[in-house]
Every structure is written in structure tokens, then in C-alpha cells.
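Task: sequence in, structure out. Protein: 5-carboxymethyl-2-hydroxymuconate semialdehyde dehydrogenase.
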Amino acid sequence: MAATRTLNENLKKAAPFRAKIEERGLKNIINGRHVNALSGKTYDNGSPIDSSFICTVAAGDAADIDAAALAAQAAFPAWAALPTKQRRDLLYRVADLIEENAEELALLESIDTGQPIRFMSKAAVRGAANFRFFADRVESANDGLSLPTSEHLNYTIRQPIGPVGVITPWNTPFMLSTWKIAPALAAGCTIVHKPAELSPVTAQRLTEIIHEAGISPGVINLVNGFGETAGKALTEHPAIKAIAFVGETTTGSQIMRQGAATLKRVHFELGGKNPIIVFADADFERALDTAVFMKYSLNGERCTSSSRLLIERPIYNEFSAKLAQRVKNLKVGHPLDPNSEIGPLIHQSHWDKVSSYVAIGQEDGATLMAGDGQHPAGLEGGAYITPTFFKDATPTMRIAQEEIFGPFLTAIPFDGAEEALQIANGVNYGLAAYIWTKDITRAMKMAHQVEVGMVWVNSQNVRHLPAPFGGVKNSGIGRDGGDYSFDFYMETKNISIALGDHHIPKLGA
Ligand code: NAD
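Result:
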């Protein structure tokens, strides 16, 4: 609904939700209770729209993580042992409540992250779909294999690994949190969630909703705070058996080091520099729509965004020119305005980073086709940036190698499939690739050879929840989605039962 109202109507709708969190501030939620950080420390959370104050946030640290991890540990046996039908029904209830609160969640997420409401309304509903999807699978989560021999019946079962830590980033935080929390709860794990310090608002509402649905205190705990303190302590805590992390590649390696002493199982969804490869025979208009949508939706702050545009030379100039025109037409504006296609970036510090790549691209000799890395006119008060498009990049330029994570696209020409593949694979990342061609043999061959975890052929990024999601190389470790999620949140146990009198060697007889 929020996506069809005017900006003023949305501001009016959002006002009471915003006033409530401004008055109460965000606390930690440990064992079902809203609590201040044990140190009493807080930090201020502001909106990227205009730097206005949203609320204070509890600045949790190791002591709060310890309390939360012990609560999750204490709640684990009962939650893991709950009859599966009950667990399933509780997750359905969470999904229903997310839908009932979708408007509040979408409006607050837009204000907290700067993401346009046209996308955030869908993200809230997607969160509910994630819960419903994994609720449907609660009853099969424990399923295993039957592996009989003539003398033994081997069979496997899956059991929840224990309390887990979920660490989420600032881009689309609500949707990403549900993508981790729903399968962990479905598997029978208990959770300590540490949301990103720059966008903590909807995590509190999600934790509350999970409690409102009737899930017992301690099953999910929320600790706000910074990565170096709260996040680090969570990855080091001995009661926490696994860390599901979404964020930057460098943070992933840090977490691996931090978790080494306690042998943490880790699941990493990290950065990307995803190619969209457009061959001359592609459906020109649909490929153009995809290139624009996959880079400039969600403010370009999207791990699966197509940030490298590889165009076959015969259509290179025409495709680039049309794309530049589309980029110039993009509507940058207040995220609660349903007409806005791009809102402000998450924070001024991120604006500085994205903006700096305009000079880097120019110094390296690429051609600037759209954008200047500055504020659009009239939007100087927030972290708004003009959408940028460079062409004539070479594959080794920094704008063709580094994750910029903003509305910033780099085009590179290529001649033939071999060169396209070489360029596509010539980065450290390997999350997703988009291939556009009518030649099915070429598409299939390339899909097999491109070094990524996910390939979309003649398609934008359409998620199918049972399908595996994740990256290779510096883009991650492990897969989410369907049964793949349970492989992470559960241990597989083999049970072997003798069927008769098999041979047992006699020693010391
Ligand atoms: P980030 O790595 O800076 O932070 C992510 C989370 O990690 C935050 O909650 C932060 O507080 C925490 N953290 C930071 N240092 C930590 C430490 N030492 N120990 C434990 N936790 C720590 O990432 P970000 O800037 O918030 O998010 C953007 C990044 O996320 C981009 O690189 C993007 O590609 C990636 N991302 C990947 C996917 C995917 O599916 N592959 C999805 C979304 C975002």
C-alpha cells in the first residue's frame, strides 16, 4: 500500500511508528526482555535521508553477547525438542504477524536505510514468505537417508547444531535477517542476532514479532552494537556453534580468524562484482531492462547487482548510449516517495566511497557517460548521489574489479564468448552472473564455465526459494535456500544397527 501513496501520505503514516522508536530507543532483547546494554552505553542512529535522529541504540558488547548466548544455550534443549508441528505452526504465526506489520516494517526500513519504498514494501512481504517457506519444511528438516548393507542398517538423521549467531549487513536488513533466522528456527536452533549498526531498526521489530507469535524467551535474542565489539564477541563465544554471516569479504576473513579457537562452523555471503554478459544476438530491450534494474534497484547496494556490463562489440555503442539515457532518467528522491527509483545511500561514509570511484574511473581512462558522483540538485541534505555509468573500461581497472556497492555501473566491450568468459572470471569475486543470448548452446557452455555460484540466463535475478543461493571465490562459503540451509544449521548423524551376527574380531581370548 505504501508504494501507492504520495510522499506526504507516507510521511504521515510513518510518523507514529517513528515517534515510538524515537521515544523508546532500541534495546537489546535477551531472554524475552528489552534491556539496556550492561555498560549503559548507547549510540545515535540517524536517517540517510537528511541525517535526522531516529533513535538511540543499545551499544552491546562482550558482556551482553555473553548473556544472550547463555540465554540461547538455555533455551536450546526445549526448542529443539518441541514437536515439529508446534514449531511449524509458530513459524506460520510469525509469517502472519510480519504481514500484519508489513507497512510499519517497510516504512521504518526505508527511513533507516534509504531504500525506496517501492522495493521495501515487497521486502517486508518477502520476509513473511521466507518464514512460511521454512515453516513448510520443519517436518522434513530431520529427514535423512537409509543406507543399508547386508549386515547393518545405516540411517542418518539431522539434528540442530545448537545456538547460532546471525550477523547481518545494512542493505535490506529485514529481508536478509529473515533469510537466516527462519531456517535456523525451523531447524530447531536458537539464535543470537547482531544486526548492522547502521540499520538496526527492523531487527527489533522482528524479534518482538517472533515473541508475539508465542516463541519462548531465549529462542531468539538480539544484541545491537558494533562489529568490532558485539560482532566479534559473538563469533568467539564458546556456546555459539555456528555463524551465519552476510557482509563484506574482509569481515568474513576476520570472522573466520575470530571463530577459529572455538571451531565455529561458518556460512558466508560476501561481496560480488557480478557480470551481465550481453551478446549481440540478445533480446536488446530485455537485456537493457535487466542491466538497468540489476544495477540501479535497491540503490545499487545489492550483493547480486550486475556491476560489470560486458557488451559484445557489434552492439556496444548502441547499448551503452541507450543505457546512459536510462541512467540519466532514473528518479533519485526521497525513499518514501513511491516515484523514487533511487534513495540516499546508507551513510555519508558510504557516499564518500561510492563518490570517490568517479575520479578513480576517470583517472584510469574510462569514459563517464552518466553521473558525476555528486548530490543531485536539491538533494544536498542527504546521502543522495547521481547514478553513475562508465564505459570503455578495461577489465583490470579498479572500477571493473572492486565492489563499489552503489548505483554505479562499469561497461567493458568484448569480442566473442571466449573473451567474455575471460573477463567475467577475471575478478576475485564469484557470486552471480547474468548471460543474455539467444544461442542456447553458447549460454549453456558459458553457464558451466563461469566461476560463480548462481547464473541467470536471459533473466533478471528471480529467486526460487528451494534453489541454492551463495557464491564461490571471495563471494562466500556455503549455500542458503531449501534443504541447503538445513545442511548448515543441522548436524547429520549416522546410526548403524547390526542386523545379525556380523564378524567381531576376538582380542585377548
Ligand atoms: P560489513 O562486513 O561491514 O558488516 C556486516 C556485519 O558484520 C555488521 O553487522 C557488522 O557490525 C558486522 N561486523 C563487522 N566487523 C565484524 C567483526 N570483526 N566480527 C563480527 N562481526 C563484524 O558489511 P556491510 O557493509 O554491512 O554490508 C555490505 C556488504 O555485504 C557488501 O560487501 C555486500 O556485497 C555484502 N552482502 C552480501 C550478500 C550475499 O548474499 N553474498 C548479501 C548482502 C550483502
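The chain has two domains: 61-270+475-493, 275-457.
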